[in-house]
Each structure stands twice: as structure tokens, then as C-alpha cells.
Amino acid sequence: MYKAANSIEDIAKNRNLSLNTIQNHLANFVEVGTIKASELMDINKIDPIISFAKTQTIPSLKAIKEELGEEFSYFEIHVALAFYKRKEKENSTNQK
Q1: pLDDT tens figures, 55-73
Q2: CA 90 and chain centroid, separation
Q3: Contacts of residue 80, Cβ cutoff 8 Å, sequence gap at least 6
Q4: Which whole number is the average pLDDT over 29-54?
Q5: How large is the C-alpha radius of gyration of the chain?
Q6: Which of 59, 57, 74 is nearest to 23 (CA)?
Q7: DSSP 7
């Protein structure tokens, strides 16, 4: 439905699911490579999110949000971390 240009809010309403559930699904699609992170967020926000996440032993959405502030949504943080996980998997596969 997302690829059909439906908004995240419309998808949630049509599927009778919460907005958070749809956002989680979209972030998972980024991680597996079905959707590009740039389709869901401003790509200029990815580097600051990943840079801070790398300083954390276990990246926490809340800790990243507190550090980066209101300019970054929890959804953007989730998508950026999914993007990072995807890139890490690609790098480890390419090194084998």
C-alpha cells in the first residue's frame, strides 16, 4: 500500500492498525531492502542519527531522541537504524 502512494496514516486506518505498527513494518522493509530509507525520511538526517548511535553500547531510540532533540522523530530514528543495519549486513556479506 505504501508503494501505491498511500500515506502512513491512511494505511493504518485502512488496515485498522496503529500508526506505530505501520511505521515498524516500514522500518523493517528498510532493513531488508524492500524500501529505501530516502523514501521515508530526509536522508540528511541519517548520518547524525547513525553517528550518535555508534557511540552507544546498545542504541536506544529514547537516548538518541534525547540527544538529537525535537528535529528528529522516533520514526526517523527507527528508519535510520534500520538503514544502518542493512548497510552493516551488506558490508559483512561483501567481506566474505
Answers
A1: 998 888 999 999 999 999 9
A2: 17
A3: 37, 41, 45, 46, 49, 50, 53
A4: 95
A5: 14
A6: 74
A7: -
Looking at residue 2, its amino acid is Y
Q: Is the pLDDT of residue 3 over 60?
A: no
- Please say whether the beta carbons of 52 and 67 come within 8 A: yes
> Cell 513494518 sits at which residue?
25
Which tens digit of pLDDT belongs to each residue from 75-96? 999 999 999 999 988 888 777 6
State the Cα–Cα distance between residues 86 and 50, nearest whole angstrom: 12
Q: 16 is written with which cell numbers?
A: 485498522
Element (H, E) at 2: none
Burial class of residue 69 (count of CB atoms within 10 Å of its CB; 0-12, 13-18, 19+) = exposed
Give the distance, in angstroms, between the CA of residue 19 and the centroid of all CA atoms in the same chain: 14
Helical (H) or strand (E) element with 49: helix 46-53
Is pLDDT at 2 greater than 60 in this prediction?
no
CB-CB contact of 55 with 63 (8 Å): no
